[in-house]
Amino acid sequence: MTIPTTPFPEGFLWGGATAANQVEGAYAEGGKGLSVQDVMPRGLVGARTEKPTPDNLKLEAIDFYHRYAEDIALFAQMGFSVYRFSIAWSRIFPNGDDAEPNEEGLAFYDRVLDELERHGIEPLVTISHYETPLHLAETYDGWVSRELIGFYERYARTLFERYGARVKYWLTFNEINSLVHAPFMSGGIGTPKEQLNEGDLYQAMHHELVASARATRIAREVAPGAQIGCMVLSMPMYPLSPSPADALAVLAADHANLVYGDVHTRGEYPGYFLRTLREKGIELDITDEDREDLTHTVDFVSFSYYMSAAETADPELRAAGEGNIMGGVPNPTLEASEWGWQIDPTGLRIVLNQFWDRWQKPLFIVENGLGAKDELVEVDGRKTVIDDYRIRYLNDHLVQVGEAVEDGVEVLGYTSWGCIDIVSASTAQLSKRYGFIYVDRNDDGSGSLARYPKKSFDWYAEVIRTNGASLTR
Ligand code: BGP
For residue 369, which atom of ligand 1 is closest to its CA? Predict the structure, then answer.
């Protein structure tokens, strides 16, 4: 009998990931203030509203706020060794600029951490996941304002002081490189995108980068055991044709995307970015203190990976491909999900190698998964979903993670996105499901919120139990 082997190192962290605004609900309970998500009923694709409206599924989400113990027990049943979740900034500082934190909010995350501890699950905490307090968007125009650095600093310090002894892994900003593409959701910038100029956006980016580095600096003092990571949206770009012009278009797209990781790992702006600013005639307000802050680099780099894209220098083809948040055009060699996200497992191996070669920092895949429509069926008297398509997607991506490990890339762990069905960030639907656990809630808000393990639940449990040896190559 052959003993199955695995490329995954011992101690590799296996688990799942969510964000507060997509799971918690209870949007006005426990002293929580409003966040930008509470006025985005259609998600990224729709317009914002003045006040929360009942059709915003995130207001109740999947009620993790009250059901966290049950959900964490299900994660433990799958054998998770890590769970990535975010802390809702507006639960801790309801307006964002409050002098004192809200104890009820802090106590909620104490309880979540207690539960994780009981099950031996390592927490991985995102400090800011598209959840800027709404007051900061309305009063300061979000990250365009330098004042946000101070508010974030107070928030991060509060978290490190409160949870630093129990949380080892921290992420400063979710997908920090999406800021210029989604200013309201990602940067809490109240001014509509069309009215913002590039200078404002780059200034906001600079403020977030400084805030991120400052959080790293503070963690070194307050929580010496903490490992701080940045978090970027990864999207490998392929030239649409072999022409040098298309290769150069890829280089430009990569630069625009990778500058955030470059600053987080090298502690300063790279030459190509300074050139961009020069050529656009943008002069950023960068102080000496900012420069000093930026030198506090991260311990590891984490990222989301859903898809790759192609890039072209041809303006007509480019225009035809518009719509993708990070730019690029569809790749004619790849299939897409029901939401048009192109599926490319090999791209994950490529991006792992690219990041490792470029930054030489341990990597953490903190988001990856397939959003799909599921059908609840009854098998042997039990409600479940036969989600072979999700199993195939995850299997094929994890095989490529294994390949990257064989390539010599240091990978700390893998948390699949939306390990339990949640509200989608881009469309605010519940029918775009990622989970191993089905949640009975529909796009019209109906449903009992009951949880049902899908077929992928048992499949993932086996992957974790065998440390990846059960994957099909
Ligand atoms: C990332 C976000 C997540 C998330 C995921 C899937 O960009 O960090 O919050 O939801 O994408 O996107 P969606 O929910 O739109 O399918």
Answer: 6
Report the chain (473 residues): mean pLDDT per 10 consecutive residues.
84 99 98 98 94 98 98 99 99 98 98 98 98 98 98 98 98 98 97 96 98 98 97 97 98 97 98 98 98 98 98 90 75 94 97 98 98 98 98 98 98 98 98 98 98 98 98 96
Contact of 303 with 232, CB cutoff 8 Å: yes
Q: Which residues are catalytic?
A: 175, 367
pLDDT in tens, 291-306: 999 999 999 999 999 9
- Report the nearest atom of ligand 1 relative to the CA of 423: 14
Q: Which two tokens stand for residue 214?
A: 């400052």
> Does the CB atom of residue 174 touch ligand 1 within 6 A?
yes
137 is a domain residue: yes
Domain at 153, CATH number: 3.20.20.80
- Helices and strands per DSSP (H, E), number in the chain: 15, 14
Place of tokens 């003045």: 50
Residue 165 gets which letter from DSSP? T
| Nearest atom within ligand 1 for CA of residue 339 | 16
* Angstrom distances, CA of residue 323 to CA of 193, 264, 428, 429: 15, 28, 17, 19
**Which residue, 419, 429, 348, is CA-closest to 390?**
419
Sign of the torsion angle spanned by Cα atoms 459, 462, 467, 473: negative
Ligand 1 centre to CA of 456 (Å) is: 20
Ligand 1 atom 14, closest CA: 424
Listed residue (186, 191, 177) closest to 128, CA to CA: 186
How many whole angstroms from 112 Cα to the centroid of ligand 1? Answer: 22
Q: Report how many domains make up the chain.
A: 1
**Domain interval for residue 238:** 13-465
CA of 141 to the centre of ligand 1 (A): 23
User: Among candidates 70, 170, 77, 67, which has minimal Cα distance to 121?
Assistant: 77
Report yes or no on 169 lying in a domain.
yes
* Residue whose tokens read 């299900």: 74
Classify residue 103: in a domain, yes or no: yes
Digit-coded pLDDT (tens) for 306-365:
999 999 999 998 887 765 667 789 999 999 999 999 999 999 999 999 999 999 999 999
Flag whether 4 is in a domain.
Answer: no
Q: Rounded to the nearest whole angstrom, what is the distance from the C-alpha of residue 179 to the centroid of ligand 1? A: 14
Residues 197-204: contacts with CB under 8 Å, at least 24 apart: 198/280, 198/282, 199/280, 199/282, 199/283, 199/284, 200/144, 202/277, 202/282, 202/284, 203/144, 203/284, 203/285, 204/142, 204/143, 204/144, 204/179, 204/180
